[in-house]
Amino acid sequence: MSSNENPVPTVVPVKKKRLNRELVLSAALVLVDSEGLDALTMRRLGQELGRDPMSLYRYAANRAALLDGVSELVLNELAIFSDDPDWRAQLRRIAHDLRRLALRHPNVVPLLVTRPLSTPLGLRPLGTLRPLEQILSLLIDAGFTADSALHVYRAYYGYLYGHILNELQEFIVDPDENEALLRLGLHRLPPKDFPRLRALAPVLADYDGAAELDQGLDILLAGLAARLSLPEAPIQP
Amino acid sequence: MSSNENPVPTVVPVKKKRLNRELVLSAALVLVDSEGLDALTMRRLGQELGRDPMSLYRYAANRAALLDGVSELVLNELAIFSDDPDWRAQLRRIAHDLRRLALRHPNVVPLLVTRPLSTPLGLRPLGTLRPLEQILSLLIDAGFTADSALHVYRAYYGYLYGHILNELQEFIVDPDENEALLRLGLHRLPPKDFPRLRALAPVLADYDGAAELDQGLDILLAGLAARLSLPEAPIQP
DNA sequence: AACAACTTCTCTACGATGTAGACTGTAGCC
DNA sequence: GGCTACAGTCTACATCGTAGAGAAGTTGTT
Q1: Does the keyword Transcription regulation belong to this entry (chains A, B) (predicted)?
Q2: What is the 8-class DSSP label of residue B147?
């Protein structure tokens, strides 16, 4: 009676504020970033927010929807607009932005690449589709027909996602023991069956993701530029 | 006593044979192919094999290991060797093989792209590394230095995985109502924010994965061939 | 045939998870 | 005040992965 009304604040940092979708999603993102996808359970997230797990269902229909929300939230960090008239420079910049985004949220990448598999294109969250639309615009403004802009987008984004997956696979262990561990791992491979791979150990050990990405883009953009200068579409005047 | 020793065969099609890893994994694959990743629970797989779920732990340390096994099993379906001296033709063929593999096992693709993220390169199952080794060989034989063969491999496989993810995203719904559903979905998009995407509805509706893949490969291989003819590595005589 | 050593498979049990459904509080409005 | 709508909570349940102890089956030795 003479004690404080609030039972005991214990771990909860924030006073009980009204929840909302953004709050829930960003707490979820923090959790995923710091402890991985598996740590994102309804109970745990509820605890993190100082709320009953059930309260979350007001803001996401179920766990899968929560995951989609997180993935949308991350994609929204990507800013596309820019008036740079050089479309190749733009594509390059976007590529590096996306790469950095992925490195900032490595645990979310599996969501980015697999969640859309469960949702037909038209029904995805708008945030997810915005990059697509903006890149289409960019390409069309650059002179591609709508039709081939789509194909170019696919090749471009396909490569981008592939690169990101590749890069993340290289860097789970911390860079210090990276080389040692890597060699150790490679050492396990039968020399007869994996001569090339084993010989590449030193090269594998120092991986420069940004440079790797740029090399790939060089190839891709060169190819695209060549395509642009051709009379590619029959409708084109 | 007068009845058969075997209690009741009920649903079990095969007599109780001794289990082994291959049996378990291929049953798991069948399950994943037909009902999706979520259907692959230890209990369900046990039931499918007419065994106690616990018996599975003899052949896979835990569920994650089981998933890795399935993904390795699928990758083993990919045959790389071939003495075609034209490396570009080979890369093209492998790309299409992998694409078909992915279409044959769409539910496994999420595993293929995300499971390796949890395992450092050197510690992955050998089956998973074999394609890497073989493609490296192929490229080195084609005249690339070991060093740049690795970079080329990355660009190539990166694009490949990206394409596959892209393609699978287009085709979850069945082709009949595909167009309708697609339009329906797109119709939901605010016309102001998504003019390009909406306009592309008809193009989106008839997607030819193989052709798309080939276009991307055209770009990539052209770029690579150009690179090959350059004096790329200082060590090269 | 009899035993022993082993591998394989089964049983039971536990803690954790997602989520349905009924309930309790709380905020705004008349 | 009383009323309505919505936010948050409580309890409960089916299902999951898997630990640990034991039963059943297989194989080798004598």
Answers
A1: yes
A2: H
Which residues of chain B have a CB within 8 Å of the CB of A185?
Answer: 120-123
Cα B157–B75–A98 angle (5° rounding)?
A: 35
pLDDT value of residue B184 = 63
Q: Which of B53, B166, B204 is nearest to A154 (CA)?
A: B166
Q: Write out pLDDT tens, residues B87-139.
A: 899 999 999 999 999 999 999 999 999 988 877 777 788 888 888 999 999 99
Q: What is the pLDDT of residues A60-89, one digit of tens each?
A: 999 999 999 999 999 999 987 767 788 899
Q: Beta-strand (E) ranges in chain A?
A: none
Tell me, in Å, how far CA of A53 is from C1' of D9? 9
Chain C positions with an atom below 7 A of a protein C-beta are: 8-12, 16-22
A19 DSSP assignment: P
> Does residue B207 carry a pLDDT above 90?
no
Cα–Cα distances (Å) from B74 to A114, A177, B29, B112, in that order, read: 18, 32, 8, 9
Cα A80 to Cα A97: distance, rounded to the nearest angstrom: 9
Buried b (16+ CB within 10 A) or exposed e, A129-149: bbbbbbbbbbbbebebbbbbb
Q: What is d(CA A7, CA A20) in angstroms, rounded to the nearest whole number? A: 24
What domains are defined for chain B?
A: 1-60 (1.10.10.60), 81-228 (1.10.357.10)
**CA B212 – CA B86 distance, rounded (Å):** 22
Q: What is d(CA B31, CA B42) in angstroms, rounded to the nearest whole number?
A: 11
Q: Which residue of B has its CA nearest to A125?
A: B189
Contact B37, B111 (CB under 8 A): yes
Task: Please indicate whether, in this complex, the C-beta atoms of A117 and B133 are within 8 angstroms of each other.
Answer: no
Judge whether B126 is closer than 8 Å to chain A, CB to CB. Answer: yes
- Tell me how far apart the alpha carbons of residues A233 and B210 are, in angstroms, rounded to a whole number: 19
Q: What is the helix (H) or strand (E) element at residue B179, kind and residue range?
A: helix B175-187
Q: Is A193 on the interface with B (CB under 8 A)?
A: yes
Could you give the CA distance from residue B72 to residue A182 in angstroms, rounded to a whole number? 20
